[in-house]
Amino acid sequence: MSNLFSHCEYLTSAYKTSQLPDDVGMEIAFAGRSNAGKSTTINALTNHKGLAKVSKTPGRTQLFNCFEFKPNKRLVDLPGYGYAKVPMKMRKHWDKEIENYLMKRDSLIGVVIIMDIRHPMKVFDEQMITWAHNSGLYSHVLLNKADKLNNNEIKKTLMKVTKEIAKYSDSTSCQTFSALRKTGSAELSQILTPWFAEDNG
Ligand SMILES: Nc1nc2c(ncn2[C@@H]2O[C@H](COP(=O)(O)OP(=O)(O)OP(=O)(O)O)[C@@H](O)[C@H]2O)c(=O)[nH]1
Ligand SMILES: [Mg+2]
């Protein structure tokens, strides 16, 4: 299905925030624990199988990978947080760079927080929701890998997580999703499209 994000192209990868594209226009970031499915979600949303690199090995995305779907409108795939096996030095680098990015990036208008539906609402996820809310950014939670649960479990988790999110933010929406099967893709694109309305720039 075609949507605002269908004509997305790889733009650049940055090891440091100083290497990111010019801080103009609007962009949203895909954040979440390592292996939650950030890169797969970008591929599902844009309908491009190999756009963002996916791997069975957690810690795969080790750069800020930037994609452009309209002039000066970008999706940014962030390195995953909280992956214990990444060497300490690299973790420190990424903690610093991600914090730098979140605090200083003027064109950042919103974050999509991706969780594995079987392990939702870890400390970093809660911090990200709180931070986005306090910073006045848009935020949306994806409970990804829903294909791993049955319908009853999916419903129960969605209700529970929705309640929990409300403790941290009254502006964060939440949906279930499967990046693998692309279930929830239309809903996701419907949520994200108005974030990019011209008068938000
Ligand atoms: N079953 C299932 N597997 C998924 C889904 N989404 C992603 N995966 C798998 O989960 C693994 C990690 O996916 P990625 O998209 O690389 O995860 P990531 O969050 O970008 O990971 P890092 O780059 O390491 O932070 C891959 O093996 C994917 O195929 C999903 O909806 N269902
Ligand atoms: Mg990734």
How are the secondary structure elements laid out?
Elements: E1 9-14, E2 26-32, H1 38-46, E3 64-70, E4 73-77, H2 88-104, E5 108-116, H3 123-134, E6 138-144, H4 151-168, E7 172-176, H5 185-192
Textual characterization of the structure:
The protein has 201 residues and is of the alpha/beta class. 32% of the residues lie in helices and 23% in strands. It has one domain: Rossmann fold (3-Layer(aba) Sandwich). It has five helices and seven strands. The protein is globular. The chain starts with 8 loop residues before the first strand and ends in a 9-residue tail after the last helix. It binds guanosine-5'-triphosphate and magnesium ion (MG). Guanosine-5'-triphosphate binds next to helix 1.
CATH topology call: Rossmann fold
Distance between termini?
A: 26 Å
Compute the average pLDDT: 91
Rg (CA only): 16 Å
Bound ligands, named by name, code or SMILES: guanosine-5'-triphosphate, magnesium ion
* Level-2 CATH architecture: 3-Layer(aba) Sandwich
- Broad structural category: alpha/beta
Percent of residues in helices? 25-40%
The main β sheet shows up as: 7 strands, mixed
Q: Using DSSP, what is the number of strands? A: 7
Count of helical regions? 5
Q: Encode the helix/strand succession as letters.
A: EEHEEHEHEHEH
Domain count: 1
Low-confidence stretches: none
> What percent of residues are in strands?
15-25%
Tell me, what is the CATH class? Alpha Beta
Looking at this structure, what is the CATH superfamily?
P-loop containing nucleotide triphosphate hydrolases
